[in-house]
């Protein structure tokens, strides 16, 4: 019997477009405050390179990386100019403030979690690079009244679909795998990974011929039909 529902966050409960860059260029502003005369195009390239290199390492190892690592790598790439105490923290805060402008609740997300929370314990299990990002957005969008726990990869140290993040999530709610349905939009991270861990899984991503997809509006009925 399904007693717990684990949700992915980005692309599942909230919509975002990773290809849209924030209007405010926080890395360039950081470089300017440090006295660097780097061009905007070069700054953007170094910032993206920091992300790409760390992400490639994470894909290979399953180890999650943090925004602090991204910012540190970017700072070294632009020549490690002298910075004041707290400058890295300011860069991260400004970047996240600008990036989250383009994040919004997915259609029917609020209704879905409110419905399921009436007879299931709900948790979010998210790949994310900053420990406060998902809790902040959960509160901002009013999801906090239905969500019991948040398990972030940056806190666990492992990202989906590595087995250790699913083990951590099960420990967090004191659940057995067969009691959990995992909901997500990424086939490898949110469907194959949970299934290999012994959970049921429901795909809400882009449908294909071999990967049928549910909507959040349909989800409560689907979860309650699982045995």
What does this entry look like structurally?
The structure is a single chain. The chain has a five-stranded parallel beta sheet, sandwiched between helices. Strand 6, helix 9 and strand 7 form a beta-alpha-beta unit. It starts with a strand and ends with a helix. The protein folds into two domains: 4-16 and 104-225, HAD superfamily/HAD-like (Rossmann fold, 3-Layer(aba) Sandwich), CATH 3.40.50.1000; 26-100. Helix 1 (26-33) packs antiparallel against helix 4 (87-99). Helices cover 45% and strands 12% of the residues. It contains ten helices and seven strands. The radius of gyration is 19 Å and the shape is elongated. The mean pLDDT is 96. The protein has 227 residues and is of the alpha/beta class. InterPro entries: HAD-like_sf, HAD-SF_hydro_IA, HAD_sf, S-2-haloacid_dehalogenase. GO terms for molecular function: hydrolase activity. This is HAD family hydrolase. It comes from Mycolicibacterium wolinskyi. Keywords: Hydrolase.
SSE arrangement:
Blueprint: E1 4-7, E2 14-15, H1 26-33, H2 40-61, H3 67-77, H4 87-99, E3 104-105, H5 109-116, E4 121-126, H6 133-140, E5 149-152, H7 153-156, H8 163-173, E6 180-184, H9 187-196, E7 200-203, H10 219-225
Parallel strand pairs: 1-4, 1-6, 4-5, 6-7
Antiparallel strand pairs: 2-3
